[in-house]
Amino acid sequence: MDRTALEDGARKILLTNLRQGVADWNGQEYSFVCPSLTGYPFQWFWDSCFHAIALLHLDQDQAKAELRTLMSGALPNGFMPHIIFWEMEKQPDFLNRNIVGQAGDPHYSSTMQPPIIAYAVERVHRATGDKAFRDAALPVLVNFYRWLRNTRDPDNDGLIAVIQPEEAGTDCSPKYDEALGLTELSNQGFIAALRKIYEAYEPLRGDDQTILAADLFHFEDVLVNSIYALGMRSLARLLAEYGDSAGAEEFNREAGRTRDALLTKCWDEETGAFFDLSGVAEEPVRVVTISSLMPLILDDLPRPYVERLVNDWVTSPDHFWTPYPLPSVPASDSKFRPGNSGGFIWRGPSWVNTNWFLSHALRGHGYPELADEIVAKSHECIEKSGFREYYHPYTAEGLGARDFGWSTLILDM
Ligand code: GLC
Fold first, then answer.
1. Domain limits, the chain
2. Which of 34, 155, 294, 322 has fewest C-beta within 10 Å?
3. Has residue 309 got a pLDDT over 60?
4. How far apart are the C-alpha atoms of 48 and 405, rounded to whole Å?
């Protein structure tokens, strides 16, 4: 597929999945791309950021509209929900309806997702040069990243915690099995475990401190924290340009603290990879998954860590270097399931968003051939199987939702 054909395909999906209107519940105009019309008809936080980045290659005004719509869901305390149910009538029995209502409003979920928004705003600002867009975004971003720090880092070590697996965007990853007490390894088993957590949180709704202290599910997740640090670097650059040097200093300092905490608390020298910390007691979760590689997205990750990750894990055919890399779980893991997951996702197949992150990261760390190979293989998956949610890491078979929004990130690779 040449560039034009790829762009045509991506444009078709982004246009088809585009939802526009005025919400009857808050009178606000919305304009965003939903991940997939069939499975995911609402606005998801990190999907929207990916959509905006892909849209930069097709329609820059729509890229701005996407992020403006997302930011319009920010609450006064800074929190940004992982789903905004703009058109709730689309699927009134949606699973996440259980966790709606941080502010008592059923149109928001009360959980977060990997905080990539400052990076997305920076990309849109760089591409468009639109200062008004940046200036309107800055207060929302500052509030959100401060909310994360003040609310989600109770031990003040620079690492924020997620309170349920969907907050990390890698829902059913095997790294959560033990903490969830999963007995039945299936999507049904996962949903049952998730419901239990939601129910236990119900009486604590709105009380973030107690929720975190309750220690029901408390993960200092490596993927989330890598993206948190990346986002804070973007925010610091945007603030510096705006002329707020104190703000820039604040977020650069925090990004450095998060990186340092990843190195000192999550790195496992013997394994040569990063592990999440589970519970208030911060037990390392000794399961390697795609998130164990994610600190590569930090351009200040020291060289020895980069080399261990690349040599021992990324390029190893036993682990992540499958014919269509990079699988969400290394092929060597006993729980690796490369094929159709029946909704039990993030347990083997390759995803375009993590390939997008890691191809850019590897290029930045001086591995252009590896980056090119990941891009070429991702492209091949799309050529063979269309824009799907995820792909079989041995055959490139397309799996999960069809016409899936963030696979258009290929345009940015
Ligand atoms: C699944 C994914 C999550 C994504 C959502 C919408 O829940 O795990 O990362 O944001 O679908 O695409």
1. 3-412
2. 155
3. yes
4. 9
